[in-house]
Amino acid sequence: MEHQLHVLFMWVTLVVISVVSGARGKQHISAVGDPGMERDELRVAFEAGNFCNEVGEEAPGMGSPRAADCFDLSNFSVRHRVAEADNKLGVGKPFPGAVNNVDLYAVQKELYLGSLCQVEDTPSPWQFWMIMLKNGNYDTKSGLCPENGKKVPPFNPGRFPCFGKGCMNQPILYHQQTQLLGGDTLRGSFNGTYDLGSDIGGGLDGISFFEVVWEKKVGAGSWVFSHKLKTSKKYPWLMLYLRADATKGFSGGYHYDTRGMLKTLPESPNFKVSLTLDIKQGGGPKSQFYLTDIGSCWKNNGDPCDGDVLTDVTRYSEMIINPDTPAWCSPKSLGSCPPYHITPDDKKIFRNDTTHFPYQAYHYYCAPGNAKHLEQPVSTCDPYSNPQAQELVQLLPHPIWAEYGYPTKQGQGWVGDGRTWKLDVGGLSSRLYFYQDPGTPPARRIWTSIDVGTEIFVSDKDEIAEWILSDFDVLIYTSPIHK
Ligand SMILES: *[C@@H]1O[C@H](CO)[C@@H](O)[C@H](O)[C@H]1NC(C)=O
Ligand SMILES: *[C@@H]1O[C@H](CO)[C@@H](O)[C@H](O)[C@H]1NC(C)=O
Ligand SMILES: *[C@@H]1O[C@H](CO)[C@@H](O)[C@H](O)[C@H]1NC(C)=O
């Protein structure tokens, strides 16, 4: 008996090792619940946010801006776990955890939808891919967004787009629940507009629009997520991302518990992100398409965030692949560059070293508005567009990123150059500059959100972006990555 158990144990161990390490001996496991988006029984959710990732006010008849499409397949039919009545839940309607404040209601609704979608797994359960839609309008007279996490009184407009009262509204959302078509194809969608009272069925001229359609052949390949985002005069700044978020704790840009797909949180340097991206339309010169935007949160003293918005700082790094995006960082604008660059062989190059610093590799760096010991010159990040202070390290395609599998030339991965990428996001993010108070132990760089999508930043005409994303995976290397 003991011998048999031992043999069984050996056999199980071997199976586990071969599954984990793969045919060529790579030591990695997937950090996401749905590796490569290959699971037929999809888990996908939707969240919309205002300028500081809150709700402010629900759109009439739409409920709280959280929704989900999660189903199981049984006997060749789709069994939905989330009813349309759940998706329409809004303030005043009860569910386990419901509260009266519109912002907190959305938080609780996300947790509730998560409980309906949750898949048990090791090392922890997971809930869904998250589609995030954001409206960049800010009504400075509304007093709705804090400044670096601090509540501030209303102030005069001018710095942000807003057509007037109500410009921070939540969208109209239509949902086509996933259906089985022709016996072997699954398809569903979310779409809608920010222009309340408009009819997207009558054409999109002059109105904003967003859409994500997901489709998959049963038992084969990846889910294919087709995205569309259109700005309008009233809504010139819109963002649409597909995110792998933390399954608990704060995902990037949030100061409350969220639900997501990252059943293990990736930590720099030992992880990679693979995905297939095919951009059909770029969205104009202001479209900052992110070939991954990674988000996390830590305090300026290196401590992890704890929900105190006055000292928590959201940290983002983004690779912008629109070739129209210029490097604002330059020898003449050192304040738009990080204080230094670190090479793959760990050499530090200061930004005042004009012969060696790779200015063209950085679009823009901005420091947290609550940092106390900033090196001058410096540009601080927009203090209103997150619930707390933020720091941004925005990159551009450049030969110095070759080591990490990122685009090395402007235009790579752009319209007409669809590719499958395997990005050493962990390696690169371990060598980026992020602000910390002098003398404090370096923060652990644990990433709670990995996003792909675009931010069309204040366009002066209606712009349309269209892209297709599939095969998304986050791979954690259990031994150091060998080059
Ligand atoms: C499976 O579906 C078929 C056709 O709809 C039906 O006749 C059958 O009873 C179902 N079986 C089960 C176990 O539900
Ligand atoms: C939006 O989705 C609905 C299904 O929910 C579909 O009927 C409609 O055609 C879509 N609208 C546009 C403009 O694509
Ligand atoms: C360049 O910047 C570094 C770091 O701020 C500083 O120590 C050094 O003195 C500067 N060098 C020159 C030539 O200004």
Automatic annotation (TrEMBL):
Key words of the record: Signal
Span of the signal peptide: 1-25
A Pfam family matched in the record: DUF7705
InterPro entries according to UniProt: DUF7705
Tagged with keyword rRNA processing: no
Keyword set includes rRNA-binding: no
DUF7705 domain: residues covered: 29-476
Protein name: DUF7705 domain-containing protein
Native source species: Carpinus fangiana
